[in-house]
Every structure is written in C-alpha cells, then in structure tokens.
Amino acid sequence: xxxxxxxxxxxxxxxxxxxxxxxxxxxxxxxxxxxxxxxxxxxxxxxxxxxxxxxxxxxxxxxxxxxxxxxxxxxxxxxxxxxxxxxxxxxxxxxxxxxxxxxxxxxxxxxxxxxxxxxxxxxxxxxxxxxxxxxxxxxxxxxxxxxxxxxxxxxxxxxxxxxxxxxxxxxxxxxxxxxxxxxxxxxxxxxxxxxxxxxxxxxxxxxxxxxxxxxxxxxxxxxxxxxxxxxxxxxxxxxxxxxxxxxxxxxxxxxxxxxxxxxxxxxxxxxxxxxxxxxxxxxxxxxxxxxxxxxxxxxxxxxxxxxxxxxxxxxxxxxxxxxxxxxxxxxxxxxx
Length: 336
Hints:
- This protein is α/β, with parallel strands linked by helices.
- Helix content is about 45%, strand content about 10%.
- The strands form 3 sheets. It has a 6-stranded parallel β-sheet with strand order 2-3-4-5-6-8. Strands 10-1-11 form a 3-stranded parallel β-sheet, with helices on one face.
- Helix 5 links the parallel strand 3 and strand 4 (about 130-135).
- Its cofactor is [4Fe-4S] cluster; [2Fe-2S] cluster.
C-alpha cells in the first residue's frame, strides 16, 4: 500500500484495481496515505483553508432523486426561493466578512429561467468584479451554461454521483438520464468552467468497485473541484432507513483525491461535520483545502434540507465564520 500511495503521489493516476486496494487498506496504511495527502496539500496551499460563501437560493426541485430531502415528491418539504435582492444582500454580507467566492446552489427550480440566473450572475459580477462565482444548479442545456459563463460565472459544481449505470438507476427516477449527466459535465469543461464533480460515500447500493470506477472517472475528467461527503438519510425519502455513509472511508477518499489532483479544490463538507463533530477538521488534515460557511438567510436554512440533522442552520453568517475560524486555528491552519 505504501508503494501504491507513492505511485499515486508521483504519477497522479492508478488502475481501478489499485484504487480498490487503497480503499481497503488497513488503519496503519491509511495513516500513511493521510500523511502523504496532508503533505501535498500543505505544499500546494500552505496551512491556509479557503472559505467559500454558500448561498442556497431555492429549495424547489423538479427532480425526484430518491436520496434527497427536497425531491419534488416530498410533500413535507418546506419550499422557498430567494429573490435577486436577497441574494445580493447575502453577497454584501459575505463581502463584509472577506469572502472571495460566492457559491449559488439550489434545486433544479423550474422558476429559475436561463435569463433570471443570467441576470443574477451579471449583477454579482458587476458589483464584485474580483470575486469568483460558482454555480451548482443541476443539469441544464449547454446554451444555458454558456450564457451564465459569459455573464460572469467561473465555476460549476455538478456531482456525477456514480459512474455505474445500474447504480445511477437505483438512485434516480427513470426520468433522469445517466448519459445527460455526463453530457452536462462535458459541456461545462468545453465551455471553460472550472468544473467540479463528486459522489456520496456510502449511498444505497454502492459497492467499493463503483467507487474505484468513480475515482478513475474523476481522474480522466481532471476535475478542478471534487465534492464528496458521506451519505446521510432524510426522513422523508425512500432511503429513510438506510445507514449513513462512513466518515473514515470519506476521509480516505479525500486523501486519494488530493494525491490524484494536487491543485484541486476539495471541500471538507458540511455532511462530514454533521456525522462527526470534528469531521471538517479531520477532512482538512486528510487533504481538503476548502470549507463553505453558509451565507443564506437564517430563516430559510432549515428549509434547504437535503439530509437530516444538518449543522449550522441557525448561526448568523458572521458567527458561523468566527466559530469555524477558531476550529480551524485549533488544528494549526488559517481560514482565508
């Protein structure tokens, strides 16, 4: 396993069978992997952790993904849409707190026309020309992506969720297309976005062989961002009784991804912090370099309920940033 870790650190690529071996290594070998990934992250980013301001713009979604709390078929979901003015207020708060990136995330809301999103992006770009704008708004036609890019968006996050066709069908309704998800990722790369993808670790029906294939896909895509976090069930979905994903396996994947993609932005996700009190800190020590404090209006955050028991839904933006800053400083890093 030490040889495989060193091979990945040197060449940034492995065969699927070799990725599978890393996924199943013992604790001592996993610690060697973690230390190697931490060393790479510190060489590239120092001891700085980047803060991205997350703005959850809508809890409406036309899709019925079986794992998601805001799925269209959940009658108990509380719905909201932020207005453009509310989004700009979130940006003003984020600017005052020093954030250099705004992340606009939401369900695939039919009310979010290409023109509406285009206007929001252009307004943010005009007001904050030096900021980065990341979108995570699901699957759209290539022309929509192109218009948003031309309006000023820099980055787009679209998790592929699984590269296995059978597994994809087990997680999504028949109306959703595996091929279309991959087409969207190809379009984003072609247009010029910094493109992010990722998976849920421990999602229902997932096999380690699928994760090894996911790693190979991410390697080939050469993602600039990779968002992975443990699966957490939501009480109002068909997967309500499924077990949560593994924190340890998620941390191991972060380390593998860091060695594969030394300069990629890899977040220590909120879902990690939800399953383990020190999950985000451990993610950073495993090779992650990004956290995403929430800038959304406090009164709306609980409504953006993708999974149960999500943390940080009640903190004001300034308080959330301050608390996260202290936690990161406690492990010897600096929030920037």
